[in-house]
Design brief:
mainly alpha
């Protein structure tokens, strides 16, 4: 009896042969290996483990949670995750900004820019997840691009409590 995965693989090999990607000899050899059960071992997938929520008293864990979810734009983030990350963001950038103002060196400016650039993607991602918590599209984060008032509009949205139940973006991050 032929394994279904082997049959699909043979079909793909046949398509590749028809497209001219592999030769007839390569096709026959690979087909023989598949039928004999000598195909390559399947790649083991690493289970997609969710990132655990820190304890309420673990403030550093909450601040770093957005960094641990570096480019994860799916799901929801509560106010605590957002605001603790903002403290990390400002706390990480402020020393370089003050150093740059006091000393005026290019090194401080470069360090400031590198730190800001490194935290830009988590900043956008946590804003998108925060909008998801409000049951709004992540595209609302583009409000930041409105000159002068966009940042204040987003700030007001970030102060609002999220929807109390499961919404289209996932479960309530507070676990109510």
């Amino acid at each position: 009896m032929i394994d279904e995965d082997a049959l699909r693989s043979i079909e793909k090999l046949h398509e590749m042969k028809q497209a001219g990607v592999i030769s007839e000899a390569d096709f026959e050899k690979a087909k023989g290996d598949l039928l004999a059960g000598q195909s390559r071992p399947k790649a083991r997938s690493i289970p997609n483990q969710p990132i655990s929520t820190p304890l309420d008293v673990d403030h550093v864990g909450w601040a770093l949670l957005a960094v641990r979810k570096y480019a994860q734009f799916e799901g929801r983030s509560g106010r605590k995750e957002f605001w603790m990350f903002q403290l990390l963001y400002v706390g990480g950038l402020l020393p370089f900004a003050i150093l740059g103002l006091l000393i005026g060196t290019e090194v401080a400016t470069v360090l400031y820019l590198l730190c800001a650039l490194g935290l830009l993607i988590p900043q956008i991602a946590v804003q998108v997840r925060r909008f998801h918590d409000l049951d709004k599209s992540g595209w609302f984060a583009l409000l930041n691009l409105i000159p002068y008032i966009g940042t204040f509009i987003v700030l007001i949205f970030m102060l609002i409590d999220g929807s109390p139940r499961t919404n289209r973006f996932g479960d309530d991050p507070k676990g109510r």
